[in-house]
Design goal:
The protein is α/β, with parallel strands linked by helices and 539 residues long. The protein contains 25 helices and nine strands. The radius of gyration is 33 Å and the shape is elongated.
Amino acid sequence: MHQAFYRKWRPQIFDDVYGQEHITSVLRYEAEHGAFSHAYLFCGSRGTGKTTCAKILAKVVNCEHPRGGNPCGECESCRLIESGAATDILEMDAASNNGVENIRDIRDEVAYAPSALKYRVYIIDEVHMLSASAFNALLKTLEEPPEHVVFILATTELQKLPATIISRCQRFDFRRISTENLMKRLTYIAKEEGLKLDPEAARMLAKLAQGGMRDAISLLELCAGSNREITPEVVNESVGVTGRDSMLQTVKAIADADYDALFAQIDEIVKSSKDIAVFWQDLISVYRDMLVVKTTAGAVNYLDLTDHETRQITEAAARFRKETLLYHCKLLEEALFSMQKANAVKRIVAELSLVRMCDETLDSSNEALLSRVAKLEDRVAMGGAVPNVARSQPQTLSKQKVEKDPETPMPAKPESESTKEPQKPIEPGTGKRVLRPMRQWMEVVERVTVKNPMAAAFLKNTQAFTAESGEIILRFGNDFAKNMAMRDHGQEDLLGALSTILKRDVSAEDLKAETGEMKETNALDEIIEAANFDEITSV
């Protein structure tokens, strides 16, 4: 009969347990010195090795010749336990045996000596499922059991256990296993099973497991059913996930408000019989990565990504403001909850949410308003037009006002574009031009950093402004900084970043580099300037 991979490759000694060295080292020490506790509490998320360590501990406490704190696997006790014939090792699932009568049976049994082993071991899995009366019945026995009895409790929800139970046990917290450790174990198993596993596919499986070894091995077995080399494409097909490149295309379509691309993406998922909820969780993961990049200085410390993936996420995050990312995350979370409801039409939920993500005006929530305000601030900062109530008045009202007040002079007829004289740039230091601080400057520097870190290092200490004429003024502290920032491909990379962030073509003629004293600005000055934008520019 076929045995599942996660059962076949379950570790038999502590040395084979991956990612839990802080626990296995203590258990090995106790085994070497014969200093076992009467009760253990193993807590942690699923698939991190709680039951595995419990089984190994049950063997090592009864092993006749332990080696380095591990069971030998050769003595009669070890063979008896491995065969499943040891009646002194009792495993109980508290999810289905949670009544007080089950605990009373244990309380009555502990009085008897073990039949074949040194210790009688009780492994109670999902112990948090016990009823209140069952916990009360267990208290006294757990605190002072006979010398020949060892209790091992395992749970995924520590907060549901009474403090009286926790205080009577030696507690071990199992951590989520790192991606690197999961990859090592998957590569080893694939080699032993004669499977060809691509390193990138191993990384995908490890990340999908979210720190659980059992989930990672189960996903490996699922992909092995295709009877071919396990590549990222095979993982996408078998597990039903969408590739990261495809997710980044979706993010790009959201930034560009490309509705055709978004609806085509959802249509492709539906036609390929993939679960939209899985696609949605992958999209949430990408947004989480972008939010980390946008809000932290050392994003690489919190992202489980390759260098190439980190660059892609950085470029994608540069297209959004923090306020917009928070608004999108809120919509993604609400949509995921809606998809999990009974009879929910996932396709409609996904499509409606993507449309709302592209246009904040369709939402009146605080997050949507913050995103809209942030975009208005950007327009103010780069000298764009700001909606004005006076400008939006219908022309009929202006006409009525003129009729009531005949002495009011008629407004001058606006000059045509052809008769307007081009604005000439004013020399620095004359004090006649109005410069607005560019609030997206750090986002521009972030994009330049991806392609040209050397130039970006000098741009970070540069002040950027937008003039009334639409020119972009860069003020450097000295000529050396200006030359280093603009040398080689520095100017080309800077123009590309400006065009992307400002969403307009920025040519070399639009860019003016100056040297001089750096002007100190503060947030209050920028807010006042933004509020008085119309008055200042009309002077």
